[in-house]
């Protein structure tokens, strides 16, 4: 068996939920917005050409100055009409150009009104009303230019009175009201757009607040559970381990030098109980205050001592380790590797008593850590103790938490192998 490659994305699967279709919907929305902007550019360009040519139709006698002004107006407003595509990104620039040209040259007020709708959506307070007033003035000027043309676009709607007639001149009094009617829908659209943005922002804020509240409730619930677990562990296991350590020490003193093997066994039991009690106290301390560091002291350099202890206790463990610069490895990764080796030794003792365990650990800062443990399967072996079935899942969870990979199972050679890869994080 060979070590499995690192799991992408740090060992965590990417979350796929209801937010997955958001990107396609966003692209479709942007595509439709672009189509709408192009349609507005085309409409605005056509109106610019129509508004300019009303001064140059057959039967009119425009001066050379007016002809030049109309030509400049058509070309300039055509350029501004193209800029309407970016009216939301450069709203101020497009508005200033469109409104300024509308007040100077004979043209249509549509580009200025479209720019007004985009700019009022992002402006607030008195500035918005100043923009509305400026657009109204530009619209009035545009209407005046139209009524002075030989073929007036506005005059067509009231019977097309001829240029200079009292009926045509009377229309000038209606221009301010007409300008107000033209500006109002565009200003209202900008205002409503801003209101929608504020509403969506408020909804997003409420959703975020609700999510944070739910997270806080969950954290409080988890904290209560941690405190309860800490109390139960301290009141039960800690007391029992202390009793085991006390009795083992008494047995060691009572046997003395009369039986060396019994004395060594009692000493091993006492030391193991004391170490377990220290680990348990550290676990209780972390459960009661998760913000504290776990205080783990075991790491890569302690695996040798772990193997020696297993040999003294009668478990045949044969290890080879080739690790470059083990002191630079992050203590959490090193501790996870230590615990996985410890669990592999415990599994051999429990499920394959008498079998040899081969441990191969190698790696470094460039390649990460690759751990491989192999033991022969013992036919009809009786477990020395009953476990909770959490050994293999616990090793797998430790590897996943570190962003590594894990494999375990029987092989064709009649062995049970565990292969773990852990990333190398600098201390």
From TrEMBL:
Its EC number is 2.7.13.3. CDD domains: HATPase_UhpB-NarQ-NarX-like. It catalyses: ATP + protein L-histidine = ADP + protein N-phospho-L-histidine. The keyword Methyltransferase does not apply. InterPro entries: HATPase_C_sf, Sensor_HK_TwoCompSys, Sig_transdc_His_kin_sub3_dim/P. Keywords: ATP-binding, Kinase, Membrane, Nucleotide-binding, Phosphoprotein, Transferase, Transmembrane, Transmembrane helix, Two-component regulatory system. The chain crosses the membrane at residues 31-54, 66-86, 92-117, 129-150, 170-191. Residues 225-291 form the Signal transduction histidine kinase subgroup 3 dimerisation and phosphoacceptor domain. This is histidine kinase.
């Amino acid at each position: 068996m060979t070590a499995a490659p690192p799991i992408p994305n740090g060992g965590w699967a990417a979350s796929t939920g209801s937010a997955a279709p958001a990107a396609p919907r966003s692209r479709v929305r942007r595509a439709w917005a672009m189509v709408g902007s192009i349609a507005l550019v085309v409409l605005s360009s056509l109106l610019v050409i129509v508004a300019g040519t009303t001064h140059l139709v057959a039967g009119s006698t425009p001066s050379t100055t007016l002809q030049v002004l109309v030509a400049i107006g058509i070309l300039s407003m055509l350029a501004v009409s193209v800029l309407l595509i970016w009216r939301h990104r450069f709203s101020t620039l497009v508005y200033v150009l469109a409104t300024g040209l509308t007040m100077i040259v004979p043209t249509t007020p549509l580009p200025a009104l479209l720019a007004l709708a985009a700019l009022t959506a992002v402006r607030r307070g008195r500035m918005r009303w100043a923009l509305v007033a400026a657009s109204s003035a530009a619209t009035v000027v545009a209407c005046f230019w139209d009524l002075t043309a030989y073929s007036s676009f506005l005059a067509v709607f009231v019977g097309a009175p001829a240029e200079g007639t009292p009926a045509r001149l009377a229309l000038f009094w209606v221009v301010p009201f007409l300008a107000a009617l033209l500006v109002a829908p565009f200003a209202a659209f900008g205002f409503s757009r801003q209101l929608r943005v504020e509403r969506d922002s408020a909804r997003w804020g409420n959703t975020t607040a609700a999510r944070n509240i739910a997270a806080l409730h969950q954290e409080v619930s988890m904290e209560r559970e941690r405190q309860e677990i800490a109390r139960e562990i301290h009141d039960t296991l800690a007391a029992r381990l202390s009793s085991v350590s006390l009795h083992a020490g008494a047995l060691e003193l009572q046997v003395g030098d009369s039986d060396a093997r019994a004395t060594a066994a009692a000493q091993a039991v006492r030391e193991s109980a004391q170490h377990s009690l220290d680990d348990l106290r550290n676990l209780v301390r972390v459960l009661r205050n998760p913000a504290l560091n776990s205080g783990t002291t075991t790491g890569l350099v302690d695996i040798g001592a772990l193997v020696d202890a297993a040999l003294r206790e009668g478990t045949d463990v044969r290890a080879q380790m080739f690790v470059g610069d083990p002191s630079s490895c992050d203590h959490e990764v090193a501790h996870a590797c230590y615990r996985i080796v410890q669990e592999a030794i415990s599994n051999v003792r429990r499920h394959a008593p008498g079998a040899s365990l081969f441990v191969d650990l190698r790696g470094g800062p460039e390649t990460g850590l690759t751990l491989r443990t192999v033991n022969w399967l013992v036919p009809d072996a009786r477990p020395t103790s009953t476990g909770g079935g959490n050994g293999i899942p616990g090793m797998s969870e430790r590897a996943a938490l570190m962003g590594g990979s894990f494999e375990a199972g029987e092989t064709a050679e009649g062995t049970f192998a565990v292969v773990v890869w852990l990333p190398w994080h600098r201390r």
